[in-house]
Amino acid sequence: MKAAEFRDMSLDQLDDQLLKLKKEQFNLRFQGASGQLENTARVREVRRDIARVMTIAREKRSAAPKSA
Predict the structure, then answer these.
(1) By CB count within 10 A, which of 2, 14, 27, 29 is most buried?
(2) How far is CA 38 from the centre of its chain?
(3) Is the separation of the CB atoms in 66 and 57 below 8 Å?
């Protein structure tokens, strides 16, 4: 996904997307270890998408007004 698509999401949606991507990363690692992984480039894409989601979520959390 593109960073612009992640920026349009709310924090809850970003958290859900992060969980989904981490599950996919786990499954891809498992497939790689068992020799069933067909698209090895997907591992890299998922890892970078996780970083994008985490970065955008951190930006949104820091931009949110602080409540005491």
Answers:
(1) 14
(2) 21
(3) no
Q: Assign 3-class secondary structure to the chain.
A: CCHHHHHCCCHHHHHHHHHHHHHHHHHHHHHHHHCCCCCCHHHHHHHHHHHHHHHHHHHHHHHCCCCC
| The residue to which tokens 């949110």 are assigned | 64
pTM of the predicted model as reported, rounded to 2 decimal places: 0.89
Q: What is the pLDDT of residues 4-63, one digit of tens each?
A: 999 999 999 999 999 999 999 999 999 999 999 999 999 999 999 999 999 999 999 998
Identify the sign of the CA torsion 46, 51, 52, 56: positive
Q: CB atoms < 10 A from the CB of 52, how many?
A: 20
